[in-house]
Amino acid sequence: MKKILALLLCAIIAVSSSGCIPIRITLYPATDEQIIERESKITKFGFSNSDDDKFIEEVLTADELRNWENPYGKYSSYVLYKSLSNRDEKLIYKALEYAMVNSYKKICIDDKLGVRRSAIESIVQFLSLDTPFLEQNLMMIVAENVANFYNYKAEDGRDVSVLLRCSVISLKNFTEELWESKMEALREAEKIYKELDCGEEGIELAEKIYRYVATSIEYKPYESDEGIYQGNYAPFLYDALITKKTHCDGFTNALSLLYSMAGFEQVEKNIPGHTFNCVKIEGKWYNMDATGGSLIPDNATTMGAGPYFAFPTYLQNDKHDFFMYYPTCRDGYYMDADATLNSCSDEDFFTTACKAFKSHNNEWTMILVEHYDKDEFIAQVQKLSDYLDVDIVYSASYTIYGKIILYIINDEVYD
Fold first, then answer.
1. Measured between alpha carbons, how far is residue 154 from residues 46, 81, 190, 329 in Å?
2. pTM summary value
3. What is the per-residue pLDDT for 134?
4. How many helices (H) and strands (E) are present in the chain, helices listed first?
5. CB-CB contact of 97 with 60 (8 Å)
6. How far apart, in whole angstroms, are the C-alpha atoms of residue 115 and residue 238?
């Protein structure tokens, strides 16, 4: 056998050296049917702004999407992204990031992933709360089992139309105009951060940034006089940092962006009708609501930057979306409830409030009650005001666990 192989090899060498024409092998391009069959086995994600609902402008494979890095990812928290245990759901999250950064309003999710519509809608919300560049009131439509097509460029240069069965996410917020406004807001945020001269660390730095956002931006509702919402496409981050007028979404986006620049781990929260922040400071998580600028003390007090700065979860007035995925904010950094009582008519209410008020330099106290009567509360506040000889501002609000938090604050902290 070795002799035969040797002879064949010699023959080939002899033919080549004698100048004979070598054998040419012609490779025929794959047919349309072969290309379509091959491509149909690969998981794909489509992106488009085309007016043709069935046409996909750009296609990425799952591997291409995994290898893509969001150039603005350093401003995202990825807290909710990390809660996704399914790798396919994480791919959908990345597809949404890609569409956001590249201003694609239509995202096609390959049906081979088998991710349910409800899960897709949640992932969209996760992204809106992880990044400061996306509004929470997204104009979103999700259609399932849609037949879309994209053009595959064959080896010989011809286009082959390939079917992609998919779920289609339509997000009208993903426009070039909106994205450019957010990039302008990013440039402004960089200037603001530099002007703030953020040389502090920990709670001092967190409070400095909070005070800037809470006091330099004016709260502006986007509803008409008739209560009709008019801000579906409003660039809230732009409004917060450029026009300085926005509602809670803008405050939250701005605080999120500046905190991420300062190196804080943070994420946005959404409860019915309101949005605020959650920030990790010195190893613990705290809630931040920058719409509370009017409650920031004018002078240095034991209240820090007020009751809306670094407050615990139990003082929220409702559960936020995806409650179980968030870190727990167990304590307030400066302000916690001093006691929990049954009601304002309790025998211990006055003595408890008086003792707590004095423990905070006669500046404030917060008391949780199981049952609330407005007249009883006002009577106790008046009694406390007369006894301590101070003017008092007060308020009451329901909390996440059904109790009522009573705020009793010396009016001098706002002078």
1. 18, 36, 45, 55
2. 0.89
3. 93
4. 12, 16
5. no
6. 34
